Amino acid sequence: MKKIKTSPSVPSEIEVKQTGKNSIRVEAYPFESGYAITIAHPLRRLLLSSSIGYAPIGLKIEGVRHEFDSIKGMLEDVSEFIINLKNIRFKLKDSNENKEINFEFSGPKEIYGKDLESEEIEVVTPDNFLCSLNEDAELKFSLLIYKGIGYIPSEEIRDTLPEDYIPLDAFFTPVKKAVYDIEKVLVEDNPNFEKIIFDIETDGQISPIDALKNALDVMYKQMSIFNSEFSVEVGDFENSKNSDILNKLTQKIESLNLSARSHNSLERAGIKYIGELLLMSEDELKEIKNLGKKSLEEISEKLEDFKNIIENLSEKEIKSLKNRINKLKS
């Protein structure tokens, strides 16, 4: 007889291997049959569409009116210059959201990505070619570099640019590759469990690990709407302000974006809601099996924004919170 379950198994193993300068392979398992594709496919889409990167959105060249113009003394015309520019990947320093950067070059010179480095920007593709200048050429140009996600065509940017700027297609995503494979794994004589194998590569603007963390964060935030309650609790949390507090404290622990190890330890201990963690003493937390020092520090850091809320609750409100949690778990 097939074993009867009341909840799906939670994956417990994850391995991360560096496969290149800006590439990793991530293996996670064991997933119940059908769960791997459910997780892997949307995660891949978020990696490609929601990873934060930088791109030039506007170009101004002294003496140039449009992208089909040419520059005296430069081998490439402006359209070829723009194509080469799109292959150079930038990163703004000091956490800037956007920046206007000015450049000036004299020939003879071959200009590469590394020549565009400055105190304000880092070029993560230093060897990419931009253009060639002869001995009489002078090239003065400005770039508007923005931080963003996804792709925005130049037609949607045109009306937002300052005068004399040529709009550029903005390729923000720093993820060059995000592919996954799903394999079968054996768990306790059951061959139907699954493993996700993810290969992720970035252009160097961010690390592949940070890209994955960002995609997971976006996924959690998108799904957190379903943690909202559809009815208002009466009693000590009767008014709308206090019902909002109750909703925050009865969010599931998934919304904390804990590491897999911390989350799995709490789930095995039967802890499902943020309010449960806040009501536990430090000694009670330490007694949770497989919850080490690093996990305790992580949980404490994640709960920092909630501590003021729980400290200002009255005894009646705390009792109401406990009743609400018990009701949700029953």
Question: What's the layout of helices and strands?
Answer:
Layout: E1 13-20, E2 23-31, H1 35-50, E3 52-61, H2 78-86, E4 90-92, E5 98-106, E6 109-112, E7 121-123, E8 129-133, E9 138-149, E10 151-152, H3 154-157, E11 166-167, E12 170-171, E13 175-187, E14 190-202, H4 208-223, H5 240-249, H6 260-268, H7 274-279, H8 282-286, H9 293-302, H10 304-311, H11 315-329
Antiparallel strand pairs: 1-2, 2-14, 3-9, 3-11, 4-7, 5-9, 6-8, 10-12, 13-14
Helix pairs in contact: 1-4
Provide the descriptors you would attach to this structure in a database record.
330 residues; alpha+beta; Gyrase A, domain 2; RNA Polymerase Alpha Subunit, Chain A, domain 2; DNA polymerase, domain 1; 3 domains; four-stranded antiparallel beta sheet; 11 helices
Molecular structure report:
The protein contains 11 helices and 14 strands. With 330 residues, it is an alpha+beta fold. It has helices at residues 35-50, 78-86, 154-157, 208-223, 240-249, 260-268, 274-279, 282-286, 293-302, 304-311, 315-329, and strands at 13-20, 23-31, 52-61, 90-92, 98-106, 109-112, 121-123, 129-133, 138-149, 151-152, 166-167, 170-171, 175-187, 190-202. Mean pLDDT is 87; it is low at 230-235. It has 3 domains: 1-51 and 176-205, 2-Layer Sandwich (Gyrase A, domain 2); 53-171, RNA Polymerase Alpha Subunit, Chain A, domain 2, CATH 2.170.120.12; 228-330, 5' to 3' exonuclease, C-terminal subdomain (DNA polymerase, domain 1, Orthogonal Bundle). A 4-stranded antiparallel β-sheet has the order 1-2-14-13. Strands 5-9-3-11 form a 4-stranded antiparallel β-sheet. It has a two-stranded antiparallel ribbon with strand order 4-7.
